[in-house]
Model the fold of this input.
Amino acid sequence: MPNDAIYMKKKTICIAAMAGQSSWDTYWENALQRTNPNLGVHTERTIGGMVAAGISKRMNILAGLPYISTKNSAGNLQDQHGLQDLSIHLKYKLVDHAGFTVSGVLGGSIPASNYVAEFLPMSIGVHSKNLIGRAIFNYHTPGGLYSTLQGGYTMRSHIKIDKDAYQANDQVYYSNEVAIPDVADASIRIGMLKKTWQAELFYETNQCVSGDYIRRNDMPFPTNQMKMNAAGAYLKYQPSQLGGIVRFAKVLSGVNAGQSTMIMAGVLFQFSVGSHEMNHPIKMEKQ
Amino acid sequence: MKKLFKPIYLSVFIIGIIVFSCSKEVVQTNTVAPYSPSDLDVNAGKWKTYILSAPTDITVAAPLSLSDARYLNQVDSVKKAINNLTPADRATIDYWGAGTVYRWNEIARELAARYNLAPPANADGTYPVPDANNPLVVPKFPFANPPYTARALAYLSVAQYDAMVSAYYYKFLYNRKPIYKYDNSVPPQLPASDLPSYPSEAGVIAGASYTVLAAMFPGEIPYLQSKLAECKNARILAAMNISSENDAGESLGRSVAAKVMARAKTDEMGAANNQTLVPGLKDAASARGMKELWVSQETPLRPPMLPNYGSVATWNFSKTDLANIRPAIPYIVGSAEFNKDLEELRNIKENQTREQARIANFWSDGAGSYTPPGHWHRFACEAALEKKYSEVRMARTLALVGTSLMDAGIACWEAKYYYFAPRPQQFGISTSVGLPNFPSYASGHSTFSAAAADVLSYIFPEKASTFNDYAKEASNSRIYGLIHYRVDCEMGLVHGKKIGDFAIARGKADGSGL
Done:
C-alpha cells in the first residue's frame, strides 16, 4: 500500500484483486448530522486491481485502478458506475536505522474514464488529476511489533463539469472549470508484522484544506470542504504466494461527508521475476 | 536505479507544484471590456413603457447650472478622485463600465442562485413556508425556484426599462453634457459618450434595480446597498458623472421602480402557493380525463410547488389568450402513445450515453442555480453585449425576454395544474439530474426556452438558429435527464413559441423601430 512502510523485495511483484463496499445512511450536511429519506442508504462498491513491484530493496512502485458503482436504497437518483482513477505511486526508503525507517512516497492519479463529476453523492469521483506526496515514519521491534505515523498531501487539479456556470463559495462562477480543494491526510497505525501475517489497528483523518460547505438541504458539490476521521483494522495473511487481506473502517466524525462503514477484502498473488530468486519461497520482507 | 530515480522524484514534484499551484483561480467568462454603444438610441425617450403612462410620470428637476457652486464642487471632487485612482478603483470602473443594466441583471441571477433551495422538512413531516419577514432564517426567503426567479427578473427588467425611457426623455429635455465635454482637464476613464449625462444612467438603473431586488430578496438589503453605492461611485471615479447627476438618476429610478412594484404587490403572487386549491385542481384534472395524477416523489410528501402560480398576472397577453394557447391534454396513462414515451425513457435509463448525460447536466439549472429563466437572461445579456447595445437597448431586450419568461412560467404552471400529469418517476424511472416537485406536463424548461429563444431570435435574427438549437437541446435535456416524457417537451416548445410571439408583437409596436 502507498501509505504503509512495507516493501516488496527487488524483482518481486504482488498482484491484488480487491472488492470493497462503503455505505452510509447518515451524513454531515455541513456540520449537521442527518439522515435523508430521499437517499436512504448510499452504497459505493469497488472492484479494483493493484500491482506492487520491488524495483530495488528500497524502492517500490505501486499502481491501482478501481471500478466503482454507486446506488441509493431510496429516492430516485440514478445509479452511476465506471472506471475511476488510475493511480501510480513510487515509494522510497530514505532512512533505515535500528528499526526506524522513513519513507517518502510520490504518486499521481488521472481519471480513467469520462465519468460525471458533479452528480454527488452518486458520482464515482470528482474527476481531478492528483499529485500526492507522503512521508511515512515507522518503528518496529525485532519481534515484529510496529508503529507507523504517516501523513500525505494531495494536490488536486481544477476539474471540468458539464455546466457553464455553478455556485460555490456563495457566488456564481461563470465557467465550466471548478477549483477544488487539496486534501491532507494522516494516520497512526499500530500492529504486528510476522513472516506470514500482519494485524493492525489504525486511526486516520482526511481533511480538505479549504472549500465551502453543503448548504442546508442542498446536495454536495466537489468544492465542499470534506473532513472525516475514521478508525479501523487491517489483517493480512500470506503463507505462500497466495494470500489475502481484510480491511474494516468506520467514519467516526466528519463535515460535509458521509458516515461511512467500509469493508474491503482482497486476494494477493506474489511472485518473483528474474532467475536467481525464482525457486525461493516468497515471504513478506521483515523490516 | 536509485541514482536514476532521485532526480525523477524531484522533477515530478517541482512540475507538479508549478502545474497545480499556478492555476488556483478559475477563469470566468463574464469579464467584459467597457465599450462605446454601437447606437445611442437617442429617441428612446419616446419608446412605449410597461407601467409608466408617460416618461413624465415622475418629475425630474432641472440640473444645477454650470456656474452653481455645488456643481463646481462636484466637478472638483471628480478631479480629485481621478488623480488618486487605486487598482481597486480601476477594477470597480471596469466592472461597472461593462454595463449597469447587465451588472444588475447578473447580481439578480447571483441572488437567485443563492436562494434557490427547497425548504427542509420539519421533524413532524410537514414543510415550513419561507417568511419574508425573517428572510435569513431557514427556510430562507425566498425559495428562488424558476417561477419566482422568472418573476423577480421580469420586474427588475421592466423597472430598468421604464426608468431608462423616462431618463432618456429628461436627458434630451435638459441636454446637459458630461463634465469632460466642458473641461478637458477631467479625462473620462471610460469610453466618452455623446449622451447627455443628466440624469445619469447608472443612477437610474441602480435606483430602480435596488428597489426591485430589495423587495424580492429582503435578506440581501445590506449587500444591495453596497452595490448601489459602488455602482454610483464607479461613475464618479470614471469622471463620467458628478454626484448630482447620479442622485437625480437614483431618485428617478427608485420612483419608477416603486410604481412597478405596486403592480407586483397586486399580481396575485401572494396567492400562488395556495395549497387549499389542490384537491379542487386534482378533481378537475380527473374530470378532464386524466386517469392517473401527479404525486410528490419526496419523503415526506412535499406540497406541490406554487399550484396557483398560473393565476399570476401576465405581461404580454390576456387570461383569455392563456386559455386559448394552453397545450392539449397529454397522453393518458396506459395509452399506446404514453407507453411509447415511457419506453423511450426506460431505454435511456438503461443506456444513457455520456453525451445525453452532458446535455442533461448542462441545462439542468436545478437547486442552487439561477434557474432556466436566469440562464436565458444570461444568453440575452451576452448577445446584447456582443452587439454593443446601449444601456436602454439592453434594458429593452431584457424586458422583452424577461416578461416573456415570466409569462411562460405562468402559462406553463397553469397547464401543469390544469392536467396534474404524473412524472415518469411514478413508473419506475430514476433521474440523473434531480426531480422537481410539481406535475410533469408540459415541461417548464421547454416552455421557458422556446419563449426566450423566440424573442431573442426576433431581436438577434442572425443568431436565431443558435437560440432555437439551444431551446431544442434544453427541451431534450429533460428527456435525457429522465424527468419528462417526450410529449411534455414537444408540447412545451410549441407553447413557449406562442408565448414568445406575444412579446415580439409588443416589441414591434413599442416605437423603437427595432
